[in-house]
Amino acid sequence: MNRVKNSFSIKNLEHLSGIKAHTIRIWEKRYNLFEPERTDTNIRMYNLENLQKLLNVTLLYNNGYKISKIAKQSPDEIKENIHNLTVNKNSDDWSIGLFKLAMINFDQRIFTKTFNELLELYSFNEIFKNVFIPLLNELGVLWQTNSISPSHEHFITSLIKQKIHSICEDLQLNEPKRKDRRFVLFLPSNEIHELGLLYLHYEVLSKGFQSVFLGQSVPIESLNNLVDIGEPITFISYFTIEPTQDKVEAYLNTFHAEIIENMDSEFWVLGYQVQFIKKELPNKMHSFTSIDQLVEALALL
């Protein structure tokens, strides 16, 4: 299941590029853009080179280049036009297209170069919201449709995590402006989806607060070690798959009894499983429907 995917159906190409399969067939027949192989049952299958070319062509096509002109260009000319496009930064989707290329080719250099160019134009929170979140949403669809392998998804999410960690390390070199409260960010036992929580770690630090990032699968009882930390604590957790919907309220009650009652603290929680909270939350607990809503609460402190 984790083998690198290097053979793609025309439907895979449609999902990855956003170009309809019918249009891809027309481009293939009219302009000889691609040279697919045929299975024993005469089904078109495209290799990695075909996919990379389609993503490049799509990037130019979506930014006003005519397909008839793209088809006449050499590979070097196509690369040069893409370079010019990214230098001009006049497209909302240029970076997502390049991140897809980086993912398909497992090319960290493309990812890093594209990210650094984005940083020249936008703040990190703008990049995360306007580029990384749409990209990750697309990856979810691509994975479900078998257009990419788990290796691709792990590669790109790992690089995004590296960038967040690096930025957070730089922020933590600064003396905190707010010492009246400390945030502790963790995921509950068996929860491993940490990207959203890691981004919140960045938001907390960027607001000048002290932040302790504990990461994945933290048992409730281990949080008692923080009881003597000093200033009031706000715990933040992200429930994506754990605790499951039938156990989420019991988890909150246990957390309140074992942690909140014994400490000068609050608990903020968000994520998919929060929608299954039907009862009123215990005292000093707050739920949020989105990252943006929680960040707004941070700004009001």
Please specify the SSE layout and strand pairing.
Layout: E1 7-8, H1 10-17, H2 21-31, E2 37-38, E3 44-47, H3 48-61, H4 67-71, H5 75-88, H6 94-105, H7 108-119, H8 124-144, H9 150-172, E4 178-188, H10 195-206, E5 209-218, E6 233-238, H11 248-258, E7 265-270, E8 285-288, H12 291-299
Parallel strand pairs: 4-5, 4-6, 6-7, 7-8
Antiparallel strand pairs: 1-3, 2-3
Describe this structure in words.
The structure is a single chain. With 301 residues, the protein is an alpha/beta fold. The protein folds into two domains: 7-167, Multidrug-efflux Transporter Regulator, Chain: A, Domain 2 (Orthogonal Bundle), CATH 1.10.1660; 176-299, 3-Layer(aba) Sandwich (Rossmann fold). It has helices spanning 10-17, 21-31, 48-61, 67-71, 75-88, 94-105, 108-119, 124-144, 150-172, 195-206, 248-258, 291-299, and strands at residues 7-8, 37-38, 44-47, 178-188, 209-218, 233-238, 265-270, 285-288. Strands 5-4-6-7-8 form a five-stranded parallel beta sheet. β6, α11 and β7 (265-270) form a beta-alpha-beta unit. It is elongated. The mean pLDDT is 87.
CATH topology of the largest domain: Multidrug-efflux Transporter Regulator, Chain: A, Domain 2
User: Given this structure, which CATH class of the largest domain is correct?
Assistant: Mainly Alpha
Overall mean confidence score, pLDDT: 87
Beta-strand level of the residues, as a percent range? 5-15%
- Straight-line N-to-C gap: 46 Å
Counting helices, strands and paired strands, the structural category is alpha/beta
Identify low-pLDDT runs: none
- CA radius of gyration: 23 Å
Order of helices and strands: EHHEEHHHHHHHEHEEHEEH
Task: Give helix % range.
Answer: 40-55%
Second-tier CATH architecture of the largest domain = Orthogonal Bundle
Number of strands: 8
Tell me the number of structural domains.
Answer: 2
Helical segment count? 12
Overall morphology: elongated
Oligomer: single chain
Order the strands across the largest sheet as they lie in space. 5-4-6-7-8
Largest sheet: 5 strands, parallel
